[in-house]
Design brief:
70% of the residues lie in helices and 0% in strands. With 79 residues, the chain is an all-alpha fold. The chain is elongated, with a radius of gyration of 15 Å.
């Protein structure tokens, strides 16, 4: 399998972790914008959005770099 197929088309974040990532990302964005001063609030919001996208998409580039993959049974029943 080529690197492009394994890096961009294989989900490497399980469903429960995806849900947790989206919830934590929402909390980071809300708390960052509410309690931090500029420019740190925007930096925290952008980082939270990036973290949330990994949960929505189901692919984490950092996890792919270290070789993390879902088990075959988890890939078969994946959303």
């Amino acid at each position: 399998m080529s690197f492009v197929k394994t890096a961009f088309f294989v989900k490497n974040v399980p469903v429960l972790e995806r849900i947790i990532r989206v919830l934590v990302a929402a909390a980071i964005v809300i708390l960052g914008l509410a309690y931090l001063t500029s420019p740190w609030n925007w930096i925290a919001a952008i980082a939270g959005v990036g973290f949330g996208l990994t949960g929505v998409i189901g692919f984490c580039p950092a996890c792919a770099l270290v070789g993390r993959r879902l088990a075959r049974s988890a890939r078969a029943n994946y959303l």
